């Protein structure tokens, strides 16, 4: 064999070895798919939480079939029903009385019968009315009980019913018929024949009980954008109170600061040259104010949160468990998210934590804006919680849960993936300390939080509802507002009521006030209310008696009556306010949970307003009352359309009863004033627009319970901090040498509209 041949073979061998090494190195760098491990099992009976569970689609259908066969009156499918018809408006679960539930959960009693609450509109009766029935037992209904008088103290008048989609359709048809009476005006003002204009409702609807007269604001409609930012200056007042649609009338017209009796009157004055017209062009999709289409090409992906060994929480039926936490979750179609039986380390802390209402109250120099006081529960904060977008609304790998509802239809609908659950790494220590004196060590714990989230889209606004559960036993409740602002046509002294944000667009000032019910059971049902705050006392220093010290001291007080525990909105409130048990902790302090409110609320409606009692919960940033089954909610969906004679008046809950050693409820109001500005275009951002409250353990434990967390980190100067056994953070490089398996992106949220 020649030298040349040997060299060639040697070169080929070296090339082969090099190629094999490259393949091995490449394989080593390609991460394996993460292997999911089952989460730690919590000591909770899975099916007990079903006592709170939302109705299944099949249960809703069973209730509808039962009502159709047992009421003895004709029922029209709600999506087709006229005001003069009878229809099933909604069906939801009827949560059993608390005493029954606790006998079942804690006392070994029988499971309460499963029941539904059905709301019916009876328009085809001598005395039209709204009736609420309890129907049960499910899944095979055999009885129904009229609960209306028992629940509300009397019949509910028919005019208080929320406006249905069919009613809006008929109103829009009336408006567009009337617009045809002003063709020359529409061409001049809006480059329109009326077909490219859309309406936005206002509420409430009039000025006295029985009214059903609504201002509708008209906007240019551009597909794929938020029309809310393109008002044309035209608003119409529609009387739709009659049971017969043919008798509905357009009562008044507003344009650019002037009022007219009809569209025909407006047309006549325009032709006569007596109307000052602002000539608007039909907005282009690429230049309209409300476009959210990206203006830059996609960049590289941002950070992605993933779980190397799968979720550390567990979701079964309607219960989620996570590192000592156990929560039953659900969704009311009107009022939105509701949680029950919240326990930490096996002890119930909260029996019920639920959203009650969201108020949006506007100012403007246009009639639609100045008369708007939306009570979003009447529109449906749960019903309009649509599918969440994975990777943006919630982490990509979150657990997504479908919710069913039945409203304005005889057939249940499903909002797929409309609630998400995930563990969130906040990139902030829950606690930490670096010791640089005496001994050198570091100790800390990441702030990992369980989050339950849903998002409601109420016409233009999107509310992000978060319920968070921390490793130290604290519960955090938070809401962020985003979406589009609502606007008025800019004219006259419009800037007295907001900021100009477009050529003819006034961003109208408004407030968002949100109300929650918090039924705390701290170390048992019976609690009292204690406040603590600081004062200064001036004392001589005890070691020389020659100097004065301003010494802070703690002032403690037990509040004994409901009137003492009703704290006005934006008024002074003790910095520490706690639900206390009669049982002490190891250090002889009452076991307690503190309520800490984070809010920047606007001013409440003046109490001499004719509609103030309908939102009287907004008088108080916090009110604590005795819990009563006859006071399950702070408001009613019927308050929106008759705020002058409210169906539920929260102020009546506060009647100076004792709150010492009683089953108590905290009613919490949070909110903020929003004065729209240029940066709200095209959308309001969540930054700075978040409010909420905490429920924090206060002497409830003997020490911070998070010390038992397996995520804790501690190492000293004497240890090898790079050793996995000494420092869990050193294990991450090997524990996370895998790639998350991300399912293909899917979104079906447009299919159910």
What's the arrangement of secondary structure elements?
Blueprint: H1 3-29, E1 32-33, H2 57-70, E2 86-94, H3 98-106, E3 115-122, E4 129-136, E5 143-146, H4 148-152, E6 156-157, H5 165-179, H6 183-190, E7 197-201, E8 213-220, E9 231-239, E10 249-255, E11 258-260, H7 263-271, E12 314-316, E13 319-322, E14 325-332, E15 336-344, E16 347-362, H8 367-370, E17 373-375, E18 399-407, E19 413-437, E20 439-458, E21 461-469, E22 475-483, E23 487-489, E24 498-502, E25 505-508, E26 510-520, E27 526-540, E28 548-559, E29 566-568, E30 576-584, E31 590-598, E32 620-626, E33 662-674, E34 690-698, E35 713-716, H9 732-735, E36 738-739
Parallel strand pairs: 1-36
Antiparallel strand pairs: 2-3, 2-18, 3-4, 4-5, 4-6, 7-8, 8-9, 9-10, 10-11, 12-13, 13-14, 14-15, 15-16, 16-17, 16-26, 18-19, 19-20, 20-21, 20-35, 21-22, 22-34, 23-25, 24-25, 26-33, 27-28, 27-30, 27-33, 29-32, 30-31, 31-34, 32-33
General description of the model:
One of its GO terms (biological process) is amine metabolic process. The modification 2',4',5'-topaquinone is found at residue 461. GO terms for molecular function: copper ion binding; primary methylamine oxidase activity; quinone binding. The chain is mainly β. It folds into 3 domains: 48-158, Nuclear Transport Factor 2, Chain: A; 165-272, Roll (Nuclear Transport Factor 2, Chain: A), CATH 3.10.450; 316-698, Copper amine oxidase, catalytic domain (Beta-galactosidase, Chain A, domain 5, Distorted Sandwich). The protein is 13% helix and 38% strand. The chain has 9 helices and 36 strands. The chain has a 26-stranded antiparallel beta sheet that branches. It has a 5-stranded antiparallel beta sheet with strand order 7-8-9-10-11. A 3-stranded antiparallel beta sheet has the order 23-25-24, with no helix packed on it. Strand 21 (461-469) and strand 22 (475-483) form a beta hairpin. Mean pLDDT is 93; it is low at 21-29.
């Amino acid at each position: 064999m020649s030298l040349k041949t040997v060299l060639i073979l040697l070169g080929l061998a070296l090339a082969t070895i090099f190629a094999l090494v490259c393949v091995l190195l490449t394989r080593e760098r390609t991460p394996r798919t993460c292997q999911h491990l089952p989460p730690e099992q919590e000591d909770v009976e899975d099916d007990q939480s079903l006592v709170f569970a939302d109705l299944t689609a099949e249960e809703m259908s069973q209730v509808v079939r039962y009502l159709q066969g047992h009421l003895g009156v004709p029922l029209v499918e709600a999506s087709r029903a006229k005001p003069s018809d009878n229809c099933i408006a909604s069906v939801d679960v009827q949560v059993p009385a608390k005493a029954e539930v606790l006998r079942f959960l804690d006392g070994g009693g029988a499971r309460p019968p499963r029941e539904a609450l059905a709301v019916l509109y009876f328009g085809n009766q001598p005395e039209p009315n709204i009736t609420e029935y309890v129907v049960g037992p499910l899944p095979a209904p055999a009885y129904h009980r009229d609960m209306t008088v028992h629940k509300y103290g009397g019949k509910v008048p028919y005019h208080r019913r929320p406006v249905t989609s069919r009613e809006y359709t008929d109103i829009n048809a009336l408006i567009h018929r009337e617009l045809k009476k002003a063709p020359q005006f529409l061409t001049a003002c809006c480059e329109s024949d009326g077909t490219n204009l859309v309406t936005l409702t206002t509420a409430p609807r009039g000025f006295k009980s029985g009214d059903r007269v609504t201002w509708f604001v008209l906007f240019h409609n551009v597909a794929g954008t938020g029309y809310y930012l393109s008002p044309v200056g035209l608003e119409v007042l529609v009387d739709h109170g009659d049971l017969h649609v043919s008798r509905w009338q357009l009562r008044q017209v507003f344009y650019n600061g002037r009022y007219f009796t009809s569209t025909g009157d407006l047309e006549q004055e325009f032709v006569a040259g007596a109307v000052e017209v602002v000539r608007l062009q039909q907005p282009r999709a690429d230049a309209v104010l409300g476009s959210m289409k990206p203006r830059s090409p996609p960049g590289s992906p941002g950070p992605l949160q993933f779980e190397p060994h799968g979720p550390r929480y567990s979701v079964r039926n309607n219960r989620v468990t996570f590192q000592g936490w156990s929560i039953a979750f659900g969704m009311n179609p009107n009022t939105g998210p509701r949680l029950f039986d919240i326990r930490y380390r096996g002890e119930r802390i909260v029996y019920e934590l639920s959203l009650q209402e969201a108020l949006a109250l506007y100012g403007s120099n246009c009639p639609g804006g100045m008369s708007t006081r939306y009570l979003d529960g009447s529109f449906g904060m749960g019903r309009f919680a649509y599918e969440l977008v994975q990777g943006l609304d919630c982490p990509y790998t979150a657990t997504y849960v479908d919710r069913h509802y039945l409203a304005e239809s005889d057939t249940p609908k499903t909002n797929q993936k409309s609630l998400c659950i995930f563990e969130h790494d906040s990139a902030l220590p829950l606690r930490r300390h670096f010791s640089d004196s005496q001994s050198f060590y570091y100790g800390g714990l990441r702030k990992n939080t369980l989050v339950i989230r849903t998002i409601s889209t109420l016409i233009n606004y999107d509310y992000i509802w978060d319920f968070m559960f921390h490793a130290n036993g604290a519960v955090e409740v938070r809401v962020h507002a985003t979406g589009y602002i609502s606007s008025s046509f800019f004219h006259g002294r419009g800037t007295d009521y907001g900021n100009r944000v477009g050529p003819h667009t006034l961003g109208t000032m408004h407030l968002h006030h949100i109300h929650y019910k918090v039924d705390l059971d701290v170390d048992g049902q019976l609690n009292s209310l204690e406040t603590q705050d600081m004062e200064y006392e001036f004392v001589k220093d005890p070691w020389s008696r020659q100097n004065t010290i301003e010494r802070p001291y703690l002032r403690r007080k037990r509040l004994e009556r409901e009137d003492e525990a009703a704290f006005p909105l934006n008024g002074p409130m003790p910095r520490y306010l706690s639900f206390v048990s009669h049982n002490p902790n190891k250090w002889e302090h009452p076991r307690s949970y503190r309520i800490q409110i984070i809010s920047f609320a606007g001013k409440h409606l003046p109490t001499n307003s004719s509609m103030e009692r309908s939102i009287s919960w907004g008088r108080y940033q916090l009110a604590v009352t005795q819990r009563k089954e006859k006071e399950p909610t702070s408001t009613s969906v019927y308050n929106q359309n008759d705020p002058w004679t409210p169906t539920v008046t929260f102020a009546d809950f506060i009647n100076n009863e004792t709150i010492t050693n009683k089953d108590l409820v905290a009613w919490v109001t949070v909110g903020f004033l929003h004065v729209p500005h240029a940066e709200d275009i095209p959308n309001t951002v969540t930054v700075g627009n978040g409010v909420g409250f905490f429920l924090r353990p206060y002497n409830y434990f003997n020490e911070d319970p998070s010390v038992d967390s397996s995520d804790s980190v501690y190492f000293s100067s004497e240890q090898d901090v790079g050793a996995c056994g000494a420092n869990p953070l050193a294990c991450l490089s090997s524990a996370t040498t895998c790639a998350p398996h991300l399912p293909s992106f899917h979104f079906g949220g447009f299919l159910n509209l």
